[in-house]
Amino acid sequence: MTTNTQTKELISGLRTLFEPESLAMIGASNNPAKWGFRILNNIVGGGFQGRIYPVNINPDSPEILGLKVYRRMADLPEVPDIAVIVVPSRAVPQVMRDCAAKGIKVAVVVTAGFSEVGGGGEKLQQEIVAIARSAGIRFVGPNSFGIINPHHSLYSQMPPLFPPPGPFSIISQSGNIIGTISRLLIERAYGCSKCVSIGNQADLCAEDYLEFFSQDTQIKVILCYIEGFKDGVRFLNLAKETSKKKPIILLKAGETAAGARAAKSHTASLAGSDAILDAMCRQAGVVRVRTLDDLVDTAIAFLRQPLPRGRRVGIVTAGGGWGVLAADACDRLGLDVVTLPPEVIDELDSFMPAWWNRGNPVDLVAGGGRDAILRAIEILMRCPVVDGVIMLGLMPALDPAQMDRAFNNQQIRRDMVREVIVEATGVLFDQLNDLSDRYHKPVIVASEPIAFGAQFARKIAHAIADRNTVCYEMPHQAAAVFAGLVQYSEYRNQEQ
Amino acid sequence: MTTNTQTKELISGLRTLFEPESLAMIGASNNPAKWGFRILNNIVGGGFQGRIYPVNINPDSPEILGLKVYRRMADLPEVPDIAVIVVPSRAVPQVMRDCAAKGIKVAVVVTAGFSEVGGGGEKLQQEIVAIARSAGIRFVGPNSFGIINPHHSLYSQMPPLFPPPGPFSIISQSGNIIGTISRLLIERAYGCSKCVSIGNQADLCAEDYLEFFSQDTQIKVILCYIEGFKDGVRFLNLAKETSKKKPIILLKAGETAAGARAAKSHTASLAGSDAILDAMCRQAGVVRVRTLDDLVDTAIAFLRQPLPRGRRVGIVTAGGGWGVLAADACDRLGLDVVTLPPEVIDELDSFMPAWWNRGNPVDLVAGGGRDAILRAIEILMRCPVVDGVIMLGLMPALDPAQMDRAFNNQQIRRDMVREVIVEATGVLFDQLNDLSDRYHKPVIVASEPIAFGAQFARKIAHAIADRNTVCYEMPHQAAAVFAGLVQYSEYRNQEQ
Asked: A261–B327: do the CB atoms touch at under 8 Å?
């Protein structure tokens, strides 16, 4: 554990990292094939409002993207808050010395070729750590794709992705995976708060970022892709406290023998025992997932869904097969597709078509339309043995009164149908959110996409994201998300 | 087992079902909310070339979609090859008698409310079976979403989906899931051959369709979604023979206790023991999958990928994290992320950047560009301890000579970049296919989508599908597909 002074210094350094007023890009280039151009291009294109100083000892152009290039750190008119370093690995020690001489306190070392390649790289990494330590410089990386903070219009990273400001922070030990996670969030119409590609963690490590993110009230959910912890005990102690305030979703890679070997050569990480980690995560309230989709899907569910009190799921489905697949997925994840009490069956019986299946999943195929769907969901929500509902199939639940506007003399008015469906989708999710709030239980929705082209899909995604929720694409995803909510809920209950 | 005469009659009946010259739609309606309109609309909109006879004893319109409506089967000017029945369940027995009187030999009963609802529905089902048997009528369903055969321009089904002609046939016990599978194929730019939503299997059952599809040379891969077998032993005996000619991919739902209960109320299916089925599938060469994505992903891989001789995988990745996740996924699926022999490491060493990881996955991050990627893949393909390659990351492998056309004075020409990337993608997959053919080993590709909008994504998908292959979206999907190829390969090897 760190002392209070150390913690304060750490937090102050990380605030500077994510909210700099000025920035030096060392190794800046005018060649679009080079990282020294691409990252600078993302910083400029992302609309960074602070001062930007490209630095290159042997510049390929006097100006890059309209910015004056400096040959030496010493020439800069001020001490920049952070330095982003993309020079070749052998030149990094000297750059770190220049940063120290200039008085820089925070850096991002993008350059690769350090401990992850062993031998000489390992020595080079020790060298830059020693220089930074003696100068009081804290740094990200090396072997990092960079950092972003959309709330600060800061996109100092390799992938040309610009998620809008949002409630999710990412701690990723892989650069390309921070790109994947950002993309998955953008596709679902969500944005990010502070995100960091942590690289080899030679100085700043996952535990440091977690400590900072834990205290940041802008951040609602923390997403982690980790290949190996630098200080697993500290991580879990921090996680225990953080999980009392906000969820941490963890994809721990390198879990298998083959994965562990790959992780070692990727970020020099030593993977621990999977089973031990699993037990420790449960103790610390960390929600473990196995795929990148589950990481993002589960994170979004935490935004507004109430936590289920137990593992008992009610399923309302517009298609029988989807219901069976959801029940299978729930069962495999240890959820209980609960037997509905006779009085609930009777209540459903009062309005469902004669041929309904009288069980859980409640299969609404060809029966009753939208009102029946919402009534069935409310009856399950009210039922004391149901801890939350999975709803499958969006289209039949859209308000026919709204939908009718898109019909004229039994012909679909193609010009209106898109607009009407987007509106009706918004109305539906408002109603589902109301039910969630009223009964303090989650409603998780999965559905076939409503297929009217990509631009339309984007509008639907936004209408749903505006309600702080999401529509999953497959029944097994809804089950995985429900299981994630249960896992976190069990921790919170036990902590109370 | 059926006798030869029975088999011949069955095959002849199923040929009529999927290639009718004329069709009666009994229960046709002019109301877009009704199934009797929607299915007819799909048949007409799908471009069916045969004669179509809407029938309704109490029609809501003298014409539907420009077709004359008949009140009675007896009034039809000919005996239609097939009858599609969508009248309410209580009316189905009389319709079946009318079909018998008219001389109809093949029917599709879309109507639900039979054995899946128990009690009276079960009796009603027995009644229509008895009528059909005594009249020599074979029928699909009841509780079916219909059938399609794009090679015959026949789209006699509920979902408004029109997959083009293609090599995949679907046998699905769920109507909504046949829709999902079709959509997933369409999204990947693939089409279908004969597909059937089998419903309650009161007469024709999964085994019958399998027997027919086994002999149909247009069909290259058979995709099955099954909740319960009517005659599991016959299915597996047929599968044993079919698997010698073409792969069967099976998603068996209702595997868990909760799923089995749901399946019973969905299609009156009794699920068997999961472990027993697993063993039997292995004996019969049936490839089992757990999700709808895996069902479709695995099916497409069989189109042109050579079967791997063993479980040893080489991975070439453009991103370290993706490599770790792929290695984890392979390991979990029992694949061997094989240690590369020293001579292979040396050969890679001759052109890889100094900092490369010297292991499997071969991580090409920031190293060498396209030529290095293709050389690395070829070296792994040639290596005798590697049975196939997983390649991760598309963009860095596109031909820079082609890509350069989209650059002008270091500025991207936005008007050309899409076209150039589509072309370069096609060239890349041609080269990967060449490598596959030359070394008789599969190359499975997964990549972040190249993000330039949906219309562009469509063109990329088509460029790849034109080469009979596919690009998966996540590393674990590539691993699952490789495992599916191995499973089938082991059966074929043991049968030789």
From this structure: yes
